[in-house]
C-alpha cells in the first residue's frame, strides 16, 4: 500500500500550509484563465509551478537544513514572483509575496527580514510605477503590510514553539538533576549511617565486650554463667552490627548501568542503548562518571534536543574509553564551557580526558580515564 509522505514536523501546522497551497492554486487559476497566447500561458504556468515547488521544498525542509541552500531557493522565488508581476495584468501575483514572507523567520532575524521585505517592496514599486505615483505607492504599501503580517504570524508561531522546546529541555534537565540529587543524598545518608554504626556503636560494643571479658575473670563463680551469657550477646550484637555495616558499604558498589538507565527512563521520550557492560573497579570513578554522563545527557537535551543515546565502554591500552552518542541537532556550536570543564576537573585524579565531537547525526562525548582500586 502506498503511503503519502508528510514530514513529521509539519503535521501540527498542516492547515497553515494547506491554506498556502490553496492561495497559490487560486492565484494560478485567475492569472492564467484569460490568457489566450499559448507561449505566455506556458511560460507563466511553468513559473508558477516552479514557485510552488520551491515553496514546498522550503517549508518541508527541517530547520537543520543547509541555510545557504534555503536562501538560494528563497531568492529564486522572489525573482519568479517579481518577474510575474512585471509581465502580469491583474495585480494578483503580488499575494505570493506573502508566502515568501512566511519563509523569512526560518532564515533571518527580524531586522534582516524587514530589510528583505523593504527591498522587495522597493523593486515592486519601481516595476509598477509609471505616471500613477501615489496610486502605485499605496498599492505597494498594502502588499508590504501583508508581508509584515505574514512574517509576524509565522515568527510568533516559531517563537512559541522554541519557548516550548526550551521549557521541555529545562524540565528534562530538572528531572535528571532531581534524580541525581536523590541518588546522591541517599548514598551519602547510607554512608553516614554505616560510618556511625562502625565508629560509634561498633567501638562501644567492642569496649563493652572487653569489659565483660575482664569482669568474667574477676567475679565469683556464681555470677560467671550470667556474665558469660551477657558477653555472648554483646559479641553477637557486635557481629550483627559489622554485618549491617558490610552490607551497607556493599550497596555503595552501585551498578553504573542500572543507575544511568534509571536516570534516562525518568526523562520523557528519551531512550538509551548500552552496547557493552563496563568492568570498573573504583567506586569513586563510578560516582564521578555518573555525574559526567548525567551532565553530557543534560547538555544534549538542552542544546541539541536529543532523544536517543548510545553508550559504549571499551578497555584500550589499560585505559577505559567511554563514548556517549546522541541524535541531537548537529548544527549546534561546540564550545568547551563550564559543563565540560567540570567533567575534566572531576576526572582529573583518574588522568581523565574529555572531548565533545560533532557527527552527522548529533554529537559524541568521549571520555578516557584510568581505572584503579579504592
Keywords:
374 residues; alpha+beta; five-stranded mixed beta sheet; disordered N terminus
List the helices and strands and how they pair.
Layout: H1 14-32, H2 38-60, H3 67-86, H4 96-101, H5 110-128, H6 133-216, H7 224-251, H8 256-265, E1 271-274, H9 283-304, E2 308-316, E3 319-326, H10 338-346, E4 353-359, E5 362-369
Parallel strand pairs: 1-2
Antiparallel strand pairs: 2-3, 3-5, 4-5
How far is the first residue's CA from the last residue's CA? 61 Å
Strand order of the largest sheet: 1-2-3-5-4
Total count of strands = 5
pLDDT averaged residue by residue: 80
Morphology? rod-shaped
User: Helicity, in percent?
Assistant: 55-70%
Cα-atom radius of gyration: 35 Å
Estimated share of beta-strand residues: 5-15%
Runs with pLDDT <50, length 5+?
1-9
Note the main sheet: 5 strands, mixed
Order of helices and strands: HHHHHHHHEHEEHEE
> Helix/strand-derived class?
alpha+beta
Instruction: Provide a count of the helices.
Output: 10
Q: Gist?
A:
By secondary structure, the chain is of the alpha+beta class.
Can you walk me through this structure?
The chain has 374 residues and is an alpha+beta fold. It has helices spanning 14-32, 38-60, 67-86, 96-101, 110-128, 133-216, 224-251, 256-265, 283-304, 338-346, and strands at 271-274, 308-316, 319-326, 353-359, 362-369. Helix 3 packs parallel to helix 5 and helix 9 runs antiparallel to helix 10. It is rod-shaped. Mean pLDDT is 80; it is low at 1-9.
Amino acid at each position: 500500500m502506498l503511503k503519502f509522505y508528510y514530514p513529521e514536523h509539519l503535521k501540527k501546522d498542516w492547515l497553515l500550509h494547506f491554506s498556502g497551497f490553496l492561495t497559490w492554486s487560486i492565484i494560478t487559476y485567475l492569472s492564467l484563465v484569460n490568457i489566450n497566447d499559448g507561449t505566455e500561458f506556458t511560460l507563466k504556468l511553468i513559473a508558477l509551478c516552479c514557485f510552488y515547488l520551491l515553496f514546498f521544498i522550503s517549508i518541508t525542509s527541517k530547520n537543520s537544513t543547509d541555510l545557504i541552500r534555503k536562501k538560494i531557493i528563497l531568492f529564486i522565488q522572489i525573482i519568479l514572483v517579481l518577474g510575474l508581476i512585471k509581465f502580469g495584468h491583474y495585480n494578483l501575483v503580488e499575494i505570493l509575496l506573502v508566502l515568501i514572507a512566511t519563509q523569512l523567520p526560518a532564515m533571518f532575524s527580524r531586522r534582516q527580514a524587514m530589510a528583505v521585505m523593504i527591498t522587495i517592496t522597493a523593486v515592486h514599486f519601481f516595476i509598477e510605477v509609471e505616471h500613477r505615483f501615489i496610486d502605485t505607492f499605496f498599492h505597494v504599501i498594502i502588499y508590504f503590510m501583508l508581508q509584515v503580517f505574514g512574517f509576524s504570524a509565522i515568527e510568533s508561531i516559531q517563537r512559541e514553539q522554541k519557548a516550548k522546546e526550551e521549557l521541555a529541555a529545562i524540565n528534562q534537565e530538572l528531572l535528571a538533576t532531581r534524580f541525581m540529587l536523590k541518588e546522591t543524598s541517599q548514598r551519602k545518608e547510607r554512608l553516614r549511617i554505616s560510618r556511625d554504626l562502625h565508629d560509634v556503636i561498633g567501638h562501644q560494643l567492642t569496649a563493652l565486650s572487653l569489659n565483660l571479658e575482664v569482669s568474667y575473670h574477676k567475679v565469683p563463680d556464681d555470677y560467671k554463667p550470667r556474665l558469660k551469657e551477657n558477653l555472648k550477646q554483646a559479641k553477637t550484637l557486635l557481629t550483627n552490627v559489622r554485618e549491617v555495616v558490610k552490607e551497607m558499604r556493599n550497596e555503595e558498589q552501585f551498578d553504573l548501568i542500572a543507575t544511568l538507565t534509571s536516570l534516562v527512563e525518568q526523562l520523557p521520550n528519551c531512550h538509551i542503548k548500552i552496547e557493552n557492560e563496563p568492568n570498573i573497579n573504583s567506586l569513586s570513578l563510578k560516582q564521578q562518571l555518573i555525574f559526567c554522563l548525567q551532565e553530557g545527557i543534560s547538555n544534549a537535551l538542552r542544546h541539541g534536543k536529543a532523544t536517543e543515546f548510545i553508550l559504549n565502554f571499551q578497555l584500550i591500552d589499560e585505559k577505559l574509553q567511554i563514548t556517549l552518542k546522541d541524535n541531537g541537532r548537529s548544527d549546534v556550536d561546540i564550545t568547551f564551557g563550564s559543563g565540560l570543564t567540570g567533567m575534566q576537573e572531576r576526572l582529573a585524579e583518574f588522568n581523565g580526558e574529555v572531548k565533545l565531537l560533532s557527527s552527522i547525526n548529533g554529537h559524541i562525548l568521549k571520555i578516557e580515564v584510568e581505572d584503579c582500586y579504592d
